[in-house]
Design brief:
mainly alpha; 2 helices; 0% strand; globular
């Protein structure tokens, strides 16, 4: 596909993303609370989401 978006994640960011997605799934399935990630995970996820948004042409200033 010519419109594929490919992001490369370091292991820590991939682990953070997995954890957030898992927590959201548990929240949807059973109402489990979504805990706030530690500051370093929050910073990694913010960088990853900015990169994804830029790749999708949805860059937002936060």
């Amino acid at each position: 596909m010519t419109d594929d978006i490919v992001l490369r994640l370091d292991r820590d960011t991939a682990e953070d993303l997995y954890e957030v997605l898992w927590l959201v799934g548990e929240h949807i399935a059973a109402g489990a609370p979504i805990t706030e990630p530690p500051p370093e995970a929050d910073a990694r996820l913010a960088r990853m989401f900015k990169s994804l948004g830029d790749s999708l042409g949805k860059g937002r200033v936060v």
